[in-house]
Amino acid sequence: xxxxxxxxxxxxxxxxxxxxxxxxxxxxxxxxxxxxxxxxxxxxxxxxxxxxxxxxxxxxxxxxxxxxxxxxxxxxxxxxxxxxxxxxxxxxxxxxxxxxxxxxxxxxxxxxxxxxxxxxxxxxxxxxxxxxxxxxxxxxxxxxxxxxxxxxxxxxxxxxxxxxxxxxxxxxxxxxxxxxxxxxxxxxxxxxxxxxxxxxxxxxxxxxxxxxxxxxxxxxxxxxxxxxxxxxxxxxxxxxxxxxxxxxxxxxxxxxxxxxxxxxxxxxxxxxxxxxxxxxxxxxxxxxxxxxxxxxxxxxxxxxxxxxxxxxxxxxxxxxxxxxxxxxxxxx
Length: 332
Prior knowledge:
A seven-stranded mixed sheet has the order 8-10-7-11-9-12-13, sandwiched between helices. A six-stranded mixed sheet has the order 1-2-3-6-4-5, with helices on one face. 34% of the residues lie in helices and 25% in strands. It folds into two domains: 33-150, CATH 3.30.1330.10; 162-323, Phosphoribosyl-aminoimidazole Synthetase, Chain A, domain 2 (Alpha-Beta Complex), CATH 3.90.650.10. The longest helix is centred in the N-terminal third of the chain and has 17 residues, at 66-82. 41% of the residues are buried. The protein is α+β, with helices and mostly antiparallel strands. The protein has ten helices and 13 strands. Strand 1 (27-29) and strand 2 form a beta hairpin.
């Protein structure tokens, strides 16, 4: 009998998708995208996303301040809504904790959750609580909405489309290395990189703008790593991609640590994960307008590659195209 470790996280998700039966025709998209999409009325849809955060898997209790953890679980959950071009409305938060968990810890955690919801105008409307034998588990469910004809999916990219990202790549992964004491850095640099890991920013505004103006053929947020998540677009769209190494946006803080790493700096940008930036795939004829609107609204975007017909993802380096291993964070 196969184990879940043998088929992996995404193999398990594909298995669920294949065996899932949809009973209602109001289900526009079920398993397999950033959000489930349900018909609301003739013009709009509901977006539903869920996230699970487990102590010692997604966060280290002793090294993750509870207030910042509260911010992160909300912001990371809203990122899926951003990736469809939608707007978050309501949030449900459920938690299981050991009985000896301090009340101060929980109050600080929920203060962070509340502040993040306030910032993005999301109402906390419910949830559940339970005891846990030995560690904390947090579940977040978000309900959002979008115009039906403005939705952006993972599927839809075409050869020749341009690939943009909305911010620096690799800072969060470096922050996690610092938290785990697998990397050292001057205090000011360490603080910025650790903050990138603890307090991601959901790119709701640019995601909404892209959808409203019909600027993208596909979009996804980066949770498991640039290559892993871009591969989801490639598989859904039946395409491949070329990544320009020299164009990868890497922060000055991360660049300063180049000599302290035991591997090439760009590997953090390609495979690090939890950046929660958006990958936006833009048709080449819409790129000028996309860049102009981003500039007018103060959004940073970086052209990092293009979609191609040939399957797989390759790295453009010195006039060569080097095949990349498709990997990133996976739970199994």
